[in-house]
Amino acid sequence: MKLLATISSFIFLFANTCNSPDGQNDQLQLTGTLEATGITSYQYGTHTLTTEDTFYALRSEKIDLSQYEGKSVNIEGEKVEGYPVDGGPDYIEVNSIKEKQ
C-alpha cells in the first residue's frame, strides 16, 4: 500500500511538471517569411519570422534556418522560457520547418 501511494505521488508530480503552468501546450504552428536577424535592440535569435500580424525571433539547434532565408515557411516550435525581453518579440525554438508551396 505504501508503494502504491509513493508511485501515485510520483506520477502526479511528473504529470504536473510536464504541463505548462497554464495547462496549455506550448507547441506553436506559424506561417510567415523567414529572414536573418540583423542588428536589433533585443539581441536574441538568429532569424525572424514575420507573419501577417506580428514577428518572432527564432533559433534552432536542429535545423539550419539560413537555408530558408527570404522564403515563406511553415514552422513548428515552442516559446523559449523567459522571453520576450527588452521590448522584443516572442522567442521560438524551431523544431520543424517546411517551405510553403
Description:
The protein is of the alpha+beta class and 101 residues long. It has a single domain (26-99), classed as NigD-like N-terminal OB domain (OB fold (Dihydrolipoamide Acetyltransferase, E2P)), CATH 2.40.50. 17% of the residues lie in helices and 36% in strands. The chain contains one helix and five strands. It has one helix at residues 2-18; strands spanning 27-36, 47-50, 55-59, 72-79, 91-99. A five-stranded mixed beta barrel has the order 1-2-3-5-4. A hairpin with a 4-residue loop joins strand 2 (47-50) and strand 3. Residues 3-23 have low confidence and may be disordered.
In short:
Helix content is 17%, strand content 36%. It is of the alpha+beta class and 101 residues long.
